[in-house]
Amino acid sequence: MGRFDGKVAIVTGAAQGIGEAYARALAQEGANVVVADVNAERGERVAKQITADGGTAAYRQVDVSVVASTTAMAESTVDQFGGIDLLVNNAAIYGGMKLNLLLAVDWDYYKRFMAVNFDGALLCTRAVARHMRKRGGGAIVNQSSTAAWTYSSFYGLAKAGVNSLTQQLATELGGSGIRINAIAPGPTDTEATRTVTPPEIVRQMVERLPIKRMGTPADLVGLCLFLLSAEAGWITGQIFNVDGGQVMR
Ligand code: NAI
Hints:
alpha/beta; Rossmann fold; seven-stranded parallel β-sheet; 7 strands; globular; binds 1,4-dihydronicotinamide adenine dinucleotide
């Protein structure tokens, strides 16, 4: 028996990295998982691997910044699996992102970035909420970052927005039995991090951490599953750091 037997979960940005780890773990504990990502080739591959490992998964192409795309994701999930219980808003422009100042970043890039990294979580939540209500409730995890509390320009700004969104939506969703929380990982070793953060900067970050190593996707999975599970039934509107002690609030 898995904790999520019979549940239907959508994980956005699940074609690789941390989202892939969340999707695999949910499937291992019995959920029917929708691997939702803009990257079709990698997303298909993850869904196929989960199925080959004995889980139930399907790939859906989605751009989390586009209303019609998010509603299509929700509706096709309901058509295939009969409803939606769980959502992980993990998708973001992160791997390969441009680094620049808030004062200098190209305005069109900034708007696109915020549409994906900030609005995306709200759009996906709007798309699934009525389907969760039909099931009598649900649970949502937003992927934040410790970047929300440290200088990281528009990337940190979007994650600070995700934190506030988590708090605001907790009130709007609570009456429908839908809980929403956020995980704020510290520096986590993924392919994307290797493209964004030079090794010397990573070394300096790790040196300052109380626990002197980078995180891994596996470090984050336990909390994500707990927050989505019935054991977390009285927890909502919270932001949890999983960061080797990087930020102490
Ligand atoms: P990643 O870049 O490998 O994963 C992001 C995924 O989102 C990719 O599969 C990408 O195709 C997808 N995506 C991008 N734009 C999309 C869109 N418009 N619609 C749908 N999917 C889209 O990054 P990683 O390292 O796995 O991070 C995952 C999440 O964790 C992100 O939200 C990131 O900001 C956050 N995070 C990562 C940390 C790290 O050190 N790796 C630390 C803290 C937070």
